[in-house]
């Protein structure tokens, strides 16, 4: 009898459900559903860096994605699903009431953006993040030393502090906060109570200053930031779980809503990038790059090798955040594919302004392919344009969301394809800066694996990345590696495998392509990279 698990992957724009055969790793079916309210641009204000998502988007998209996946399977498949697991973007927290209900699901706050999930790329809390950094630097115990030494506005404490300070009504109603991966897991297992909800080791360690030696930062530290944070601390947690842990079982209600058997295992969730690295069969000394709207760079290191050393300038080192028994290392870029989308929209402005919506959208869909085709014809260095990838701030090395991008070398002869190529090269240069920083911190990198939409869809970007890095890049076959990683953990939670390593061996998808660097282009990029570094220093002299 075939047995299946479902990995449910919450991305920035949509939810994906992947049904996997636990014996062969075959991806039986998948379903995708966009977030209805997010697709309309509701509750967001890009001009102020506010990006919020309604809880109902997550619920409706999950139901729709699972239904679409099951619809294309053979009869009896649903009955043989034995477990599921979630991965979500992060840090994407929400303020909740005493029962763990997101405040936006209560009548009083149904349309209040501050009562909704605060998406990872929401940067409204830059000032609060800097305040946390300042306090941590003066505190006897440095609670951000395992966070790379810099706390980011992309992470939960800064986001929660900003809302509590700026929205008195929401602050009065808030009892606790929950990460998306923890809340959605609690929702389908019937345990959203803040004090008892299972909490992801991955999310807590990388985003919430959690460490096994102290738990969350103590009340006296939070009190210095704001009394409202300290008041929330007793309603939170000290214990966290790795994703090979069974969080509970699917309730009767959610079994009926999803069309699945009641009582199947639900594993503890995690952040999407970390699950993606598992789906890509991450191993020591292999860097996994999750390349999409932004990037995450994930590695695992044997604790005996890292010892007590703290790696500076990254997005955290957490025991068990990726593979149990290994230290998970996270870095990344705050914008990658988002930069290409931004330039497309700049180029498309006249279309949206002067053409009918139908005509505009048809042409806009052709802009990036056309830019790519022309950019490929331009030799490295030919345009003289150099750009920085800091359009949404810098995540690594050393997070600073106040930074802005710079374009240099423009002339009256600069064309749209030239600028686009410079932007692609900028994202590759930013990737190289991360890798070189890791190497300077003593992290050995022997190979690079890539997952995510861009790795599957843009040979031009991937070849440029290989040329700039001077290293080959293998593209993982699975188009939904994050969901696949979640399905692997679901198989462990269901008892089909004793550990995640055996699940990876049985369910891994292998590779679909390998991009090898061109030696001549790499030599040119070595020189252009120095110009990138010089421009970065000019833009950020600190």
Structure write-up:
The protein has 542 residues and is α/β, with parallel strands linked by helices. It has 2 domains: 4-270, ATPase, nucleotide binding domain (Nucleotidyltransferase, domain 5, 2-Layer Sandwich), CATH 3.30.420.40; 281-335 and 372-477 and 510-542, Nucleotidyltransferase, domain 5, CATH 3.30.420.40. 40% of the residues lie in helices and 17% in strands. The strands form 5 sheets. Strands 1, 2, 3, 5, 9, 10 and 11 form a 7-stranded mixed sheet that branches. A 7-stranded mixed sheet has the order 14-15-13-12-18-19-20. It has a two-stranded antiparallel ribbon with strand order 4-7. A hairpin with a 5-residue loop joins strand 2 (14-21) and strand 3 (27-34). Helix 13 (337-354) runs antiparallel to helix 14 (357-364), helix 16 (416-440) packs across helix 18 and helix 19 (481-493) packs across helix 20. The protein starts with a strand and ends with a helix. The model has no long low-confidence stretch (mean pLDDT 97).
What is the percentage of strand-forming residues? Answer: 15-25%
CATH fold annotation of the largest domain: Nucleotidyltransferase, domain 5
Point out poorly predicted stretches.
none
Q: What separation lies between the terminal Cα atoms?
A: 61 Å
Task: Give the helix tally.
Answer: 21
Level-2 CATH architecture of the largest domain: 2-Layer Sandwich
Global Rg? 22 Å
| Sheet having the most strands | 7 strands, mixed
User: What number of structural domains do the residues give?
Assistant: 2
CATH class of the largest domain: Alpha Beta
Mean pLDDT: 97
Q: What is the CATH H-level superfamily of the largest domain?
A: ATPase, nucleotide binding domain
Using DSSP, what is the number of strands?
A: 20
- State the shape: globular
Percent of residues in helices: 40-55%
Classify the secondary structure makeup into a structural class: alpha/beta
């Amino acid at each position: 009898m075939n047995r299946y698990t479902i990995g449910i992957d919450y991305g920035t724009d949509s939810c994906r459900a992947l049904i996997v055969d636990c014996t062969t790793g075959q991806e039986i079916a998948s379903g995708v559903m966009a977030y209805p309210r997010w697709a309309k641009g509701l509750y967001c204000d890009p001009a102020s860096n506010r990006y919020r998502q309604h809880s109902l988007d997550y619920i409706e998209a999950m139901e729709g994605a699972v239904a679409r996946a099951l619809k294309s399977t053979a009869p009896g498949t649903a009955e043989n699903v034995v477990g599921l697991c979630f991965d979500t973007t992060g840090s994407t927290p929400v303020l909740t009431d005493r029962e763990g209900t997101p405040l936006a699901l209560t009548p009083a706050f149904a349309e209040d953006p501050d009562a909704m999930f605060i998406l990872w790329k929401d940067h409204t809390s830059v000032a609060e993040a800097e305040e946390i950094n300042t306090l941590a630097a003066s505190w006897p115990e440095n609670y951000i030393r395992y966070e790379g030494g810099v706390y980011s506005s992309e992470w939960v404490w800064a986001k929660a502090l900003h809302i509590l300070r700026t929205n008195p009504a929401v602050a009065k109603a808030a009892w606790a906060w929950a990460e998306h991966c923890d809340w959605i897991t609690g929702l389908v297992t019937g345990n959203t109570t803040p004090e008892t909800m299972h909490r992801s080791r991955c999310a807590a360690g990388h985003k919430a200053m959690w460490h096994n030696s102290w738990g969350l930062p103590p009340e006296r530290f939070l009190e210095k930031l704001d009394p409202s944070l300290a008041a929330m601390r007793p309603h939170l947690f000290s214990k966290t779980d790795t994703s090979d842990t069974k969080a509970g079982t699917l309730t009767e209600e959610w079994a009926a809503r999803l069309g699945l058997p009641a009582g199947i295992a639900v594993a503890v969730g995690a952040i999407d990038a970390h699950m993606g690295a598992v789906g890509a069969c991450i191993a020591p000394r292999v860097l996994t790059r999750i390349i999409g709207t932004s990037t995450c760079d994930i590695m695992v290191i044997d604790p005996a090798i890292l010892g007590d050393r703290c790696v500076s300038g990254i997005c955290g080192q957490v025991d068990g955040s990726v593979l149990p028994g290994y230290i998970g290392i996270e870095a990344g870029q705050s914008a990658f594919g988002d930069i290409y989308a931004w330039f497309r929209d700049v180029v498309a402005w006249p279309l949206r302004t002067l053409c009918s919506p139908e005509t505009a959208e048809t042409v806009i869909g052709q802009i990036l392919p056309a830019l790519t085709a022309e950019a490929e014809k331009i030799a490295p260095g030919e345009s003289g344009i150099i750009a920085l990838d800091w359009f949404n701030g810098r995540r690594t090395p050393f997070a600073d969301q106040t930074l802005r991008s710079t374009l240099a070398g423009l002339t009256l002869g600069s064309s749209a394809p030239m600028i686009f190529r410079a932007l692609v090269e900028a994202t590759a240069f930013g990737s190289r800066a991360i890798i070189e920083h890791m190497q300077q911190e003593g992290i050995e990198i022997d190979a690079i694996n890539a997952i995510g939409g861009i790795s599957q869809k843009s040979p031009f970007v991937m070849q440029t990345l290989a040329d700039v890095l001077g290293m080959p890049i293998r593209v993982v076959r699975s188009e939904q590696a994050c969901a696949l990683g979640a399905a692997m953990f679901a198989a462990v939670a269901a008892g089909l495998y004793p550990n995640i390593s055996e699940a990876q061996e049985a369910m891994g998808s292998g590779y679909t392509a390998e991009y090898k660097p061109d030696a001549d282009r790499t030599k040119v990029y070595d020189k252009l990279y120095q110009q990138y570094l010089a421009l970065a220093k000019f833009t950020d002299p600190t």
